[in-house]
Amino acid sequence: MRLAAKNEKQGILTMLHQSRLFHDAVRVFRVQRIAKSVLTRIPLSRTLHESKLRYRLRNLESFLLADEIFKGKVYRDAFDGADVQTFVDLGCNVGFFVLYAAAQSKLGREVIGLAVDGSEEMADETRWHVEQNGLTNVRVELGAAGFPPDVHETTFYVNPSNVASSAQPTLNPNVPKKGDSVAVKVPVVHVHERWRSLHGDRRIDLLKIDVEGTECDLIRNEPALLAIADRIVIEWHKWITSLDEVGGLLRAAGFSQRVVVGEDDNAGVAVFERTRPAARAT
Predict the structure, then answer these.
(1) Is 196 in contact with 224 (CB distance < 8 Å)?
(2) Which homologous superfamily is 74-274 in?
(3) 262 contacts: CB under 8 Å, gap ≥ 6
(4) Which residue among 83, 148, 164, 201 is buried most deeply as judged by most CB within 10 Å?
């Protein structure tokens, strides 16, 4: 995630993140490493005004994500006109979308959710936010999603920039890398199967997909998950895929495009909603 919503005021970090010069400076002066070292020892804490949900900032990217999600409101359109009581967050990163979902839901801290990330550090950070805010109905899983049912373990590429970690190794060529990715083995989370084990026949009001380049694989390999989802907010990554490809797959699954929330040279975020009953998954 690296976009601000349309018609919303961008914070300074979001604007800077769109500059190649900024990324070069971060790499050359090791800003990311220094910031993480300091913030790991002395994290900054913030509170969302209306919901009183608490979050912490322990790395440079967390400032960017907070700027986009809480100030830029990049996910606002995903909740517009929807009663979101259940959600799945694929690519949960530090867990800020989870907090935003709780803040937007009528259920508040009782919102029901499943959050998944392939980075152990990010899953732990999301888990901290869930536990600190008493989100007892939100489950956090370590693993990668979007694989065939007979695959139970895969390689996940953990990058020093936590917004660039992915189950595929190709980094965005337009953004100077902050360091080499480390390949680790992680369990595969079969999301539909896991959701059913936790919540039975309950449908998913909002499915969020931000998996840094494997979004089309996920759509193809999890038809049963799509069949129980009523709205999807998805980020597509342009060095891997396109909105046309993503949209075509989702239309075939019974969704139509509601709105493109934001888009830049690297990626975009769009909201899709169900327009016809899902075909029976085979």
Answers:
(1) no
(2) Vaccinia Virus protein VP39 (3.40.50.150)
(3) 3, 4, 5, 6, 74, 268, 269
(4) 164
H or E segment at 12? helix 12-17
Tokens of 217: 């694989």
d(CA 221, CA 226): 10
CA distance 126 to 67: 17
What residue type is assigned to position 237 of the chain?
Answer: H
pTM, entire model:
0.87
Task: Inform me whether the pLDDT recorded for 9 exceeds 90.
Answer: no
Compute the C-alpha angle 266/267/268, nearest 5°: 145
Q: In degrees, to the nearest 5, what angle opens at C-alpha 274 toward C-alphas 239 and 279?
A: 95
Predicted confidence at residue 30, as pLDDT, reads 52
Rounded Cα distance between 261 and 195, Å, is 27
